[in-house]
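Glycine transporter domain-containing protein (Marinobacter profundi), 205 aa
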Amino acid sequence: MLTSIYLIAITAEAMSGALAAGRRNMDLFGVAVIAFLTALGGGTVRDILLGNFPVTWTQHSSYIYLTITGGLVTIVIARFMRHLHQLFLVLDAIGLVAFTVIGCNVALNLGYQTPVIVMSGITTGIFGGILRDLMCNRTPQVLRHELYASVSLVVALVYLFLLREGIDDDITLLAAFSLGLLLRMCAIRWKVSLPVFSYSQARWQ
């Protein structure tokens, strides 16, 4: 089940990366690179930080084909994207939760302590989007709009808590997914965000 969700998630993230590249008028190679980084960048950064080698996607070439194809297909269907905006918000939320849970599982299997496991989940969940925005010369969206990174944090904490309480794995996964999706959808619907820190030198003098 988690594998299927993961494949959906990396495809959706690849397409979001391609759209970001299109807004910057990149060529086909640029679109493919941004799609790849958006979809698989979080897992790559996680594996490097945790010393989990070989990096996951290097052992599954199908992930490379899937993400690059998803990015290039986006070019063809871009004109219809405005009609699919809500669908992509849902897919992106699924990707966030799926990547977070997968990141937690990787660190769990490597025997890391709780703080590292949580950060592994968050890194996997959000870092692809950060790489996408940095490559497209934008302030990372995950740090400035509706609740996103904080949703990943909550999912990681709830997932670990339920696992350590001995709750059935399937129930734990369903609970973490449901909560994560609910929080993300509510944040989008009602524009919920964390307080913003705005520093102005003139203001504080």
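The helical segments are 2-23, 28-50, 61-77, 85-109, 114-135, 149-164, 169-190. The CA atoms of residues 6 and 98 lie 6 Å apart. ok done for today
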